[in-house]
Write a structure and sequence with these properties.
Layout: H1 3-14, E1 21-25, H2 31-40, E2 44-49, H3 52-61, H4 63-67, E3 71-75, H5 83-87, E4 96-102, H6 106-109, H7 113-122, E5 123-133, H8 145-154, E6 157-163, E7 168-174
Parallel strand pairs: 1-2, 1-4, 2-3, 4-5
Antiparallel strand pairs: 5-7, 6-7
Helix pairs in contact: 1-2
Length: about 180
C-alpha cells in the first residue's frame, strides 16, 4: 500500500476535518504531514521530530504547505520538547484538536510518561489522541492490541482500536 493510501486510511479513521489544529509526533520525512495538511484547509499541522535530517526532508516535501502556513516544523524529542513550545506554533490560547503519531514505538515499548504528559498539555478539552501503526504491506510490524491497552491504561487512557489486515489505529480516551 502506498503512503498515500495508508495515510488516507489513518486520516479517515482519526476523523481529520478541515480547520483543525493537528500535532504529529515523529513525522519523519513529511509524507504524512503533506497528506493531512491537504485535508485541513485553513487548519494547521505541526510536526515535531528529533531528527534534523528528517525535518529537512519534510521541509522540502512540504514547502508549499509551509509557505501557506498550513505546516509548521519543530525539532526536538517529544516528551523533552515543552508543550508551550509546541503550542507557540498556534494562535494564542489555542490547543490541538488532534495529536497523533505513526509508527512511533516509544508508546508501546515503554511507559513514555513524559510524552503522554506533553500530549495531554497540548490537547484541547475535546481533542483526540491516536497512535497509528503499520506500513500497509503484508506482515507490517504492529504492536499487539494487548500491549497497547496496557500502555494506554498506565498513562490513564482507555484504548480503542481500528484495524485492517496491515494497519492499526488506536484511540486514547481518558479513563474517568
Amino acid at each position: 500500500m502506498a503512503d498515500e493510501a495508508r495515510f488516507d486510511w489513518f486520516a479517515d479513521t482519526m476523523g481529520v476535518r478541515a480547520g483543525e489544529r493537528v500535532l504529529e509526533l515523529g513525522p519523519g520525512s513529511g509524507a504524512s504531514l503533506a497528506r493531512i495538511a491537504a485535508r485541513l484547509g485553513k487548519g494547521r499541522i505541526v510536526g515535531v521530530d528529533r531528527s534534523a535530517t528528517a525535518l529537512s526532508q519534510a521541509e522540502r516535501r512540504c514547502a508549499s504547505e509551509i509557505a501557506a502556513g498550513r505546516v509548521r516544523l519543530v525539532q526536538g524529542e517529544i516528551g523533552k520538547v515543552r508543550a508551550d513550545r509546541l503550542l507557540d506554533e498556534l494562535d494564542p490560547g489555542q490547543r490541538f484538536d488532534l495529536v497523533f503519531a505513526v509508527n512511533v514505538n516509544m508508546f508501546w515499548t515503554g511507559p513514555a510518561t513524559t510524552s503522554w504528559t506533553t500530549m495531554r498539555e497540548c490537547l484541547a478539552p475535546s481533542g483526540r489522541i491516536w497512535l497509528c501503526y503499520g506500513y500497509g504491506t503484508p506482515n507490517s510490524p504492529t504492536p499487539s492490541i494487548e500491549r497497547l491497552t496496557e500502555r494506554f491504561a498506565s498513562a490513564g487512557y482507555h484504548c480503542t482500536t481500528v484495524t485492517t489486515d496491515t494497519l492499526l489505529a488506536a484511540r486514547a480516551t481518558p479513563i474517568t
